[in-house]
Amino acid sequence: MKLEKNDIHTQNTSRSFAFELKARDASTRARLGEVHTPHGSFETPVFIPVGTRATVKGLTPEMVEQTGTKIILANTYHLYLRPGHELIGRHGGLHRFMNWPLPILTDSGGFQVYSLGVLRKLTEEGYAFQSHIDGSSHVMTPESCIAIQETLGSDIMMCLDECISYPAERRQVEASLALTIRWAKRCADARRSTSQALFGISQGGVHADLRKRCIEALAEMGFDGYALGGLSVGEPKELLYETVEFSALALPDDKPRYLMGVGTPEDILECVCHGVDMFDCVIPTRNARNGMLFTKKGKLVIKNARYRQDRNPLDDQCRCYTCRNFSRAYLRHLFIAREILAIVLNTIHNITFYATLMKGVREAVRGGTYETFRKAFLDTYQTGSEEEKGC
Ligand SMILES: [Zn+2]
Fold first, then answer.
1. Ligand 1: distance of its center to the CA of 231 in Å?
2. Ligand 1 centroid, distance to 272 Cα (angstroms)
3. I need a labelling partner for 366 at 20 to 30 A (CA). Which of 86, 148, 202, 358 fits?
């Protein structure tokens, strides 16, 4: 189904950002969209590689671009602490500082502060926390979080939210989502930039009514897009999928939907079915550094002895620089010898694998054949010849 371009701009939305819904799948709720930003456009569903500290570890921006990646994620918390957002601002903003010309999404830092555990103190005002680098004391408020992201100049900013662990008592979840809503309002009020988009983040654990309550409150504030936060924090897979399903049904249809921190190829394929448009996760990059590589036929642990003499590429269907030029035997040697090039070549491949997967997803949604694509992919991926040990 062809849809109208969204051109509604309220006080709270960016003038340079737009989401265009281009097609819907025939038998699932999967959608094909296009996001427009001041640094270019990208189609959705999309996977966003993580470049926490203004670098996708091991790769030059040019290498990242060659994988087919159109948008990367950087982290507000980490860049605020080191080298400092003001320094990045003085160097012309994040795009110029790291020489990445395409869109950047900045995570708010709420999740990083959450994962610091005892080093933080939460009040109505914001988070008081100690730097994981030098122990210095800091306060992150919704207002300062937006000011930092505006100085960084990312294309998509995220609201500061409170992420709680799983399992949690219902009243705790309720209190946390109420705070997240109050903070979202403060973030919306604090924004000055009209060129950067701002996404609201919904909390509410795995409770359908609480997620709905949070999403409705956020939708009333009119954000440029909406994220599902507080997931992939230890809940069982079925609960994650169920929560994504009922949450996506409550989210505004005409704005991008972003599932934060998820996940594996299986997770992505499942959540696309429910209408999620954007994903990010450390899995492809982190696993690449640990020698765990993705192929069409399943996961491959490159250090295993069976690859010692293997002249084949990692994945004979992959067109990445690594697969076009190097054998499994060479990649195993680099990994065992702890050579820097192992990280570079493995990361190129894993990011290309995710970018190619998402391209396949989009083509299938465009053609209305998503379910067939998903089934065929998983059939090969889950029953393929590669081992799954050590992942
Ligand atoms: Zn490859």
1. 29
2. 23
3. 202
| Catalytic-residue membership of 280 | yes
Q: Is 107 a catalytic residue?
A: yes
Residue from 25, 224, 280, 315 carrying the catalytic annotation = 280
Average of per-residue pLDDT values in the chain: 94
- The whole-angstrom separation of Cα 67 and Cα 79 is 25
Among 25, 107, 161, 224, the one annotated catalytic: 107
Distance CA 384, CA 365 (A): 24
388 Cα: distance to centroid of ligand 1 (angstroms):
18
The residues spanned by each domain of the chain are: 22-287, 291-383
Phi/psi region, residue 49 (left: phi>0; alpha: psi -120 to 50; beta: rest), is: beta
How many angstroms does the Cα of residue 187 sit away from the middle of ligand 1? 41
Q: What is the pLDDT of residue 385?
A: 66
pLDDT in tens, 107-153: 998 888 878 776 789 999 999 999 989 999 999 999 999 999 999 99
CA–CA dist 85, 88 (Å, integer): 5
Reply yes or no on whether the pLDDT at 323 is more than 80.
Answer: yes
Amino acid at 337: A
Which CATH number applies to 22-287?
3.20.20.105
Can you tell me the distance from the alpha carbon of 133 to that of 48, in angstroms, rounded to the nearest whole number? 26
What's the confidence (pLDDT) of residue 384? 80
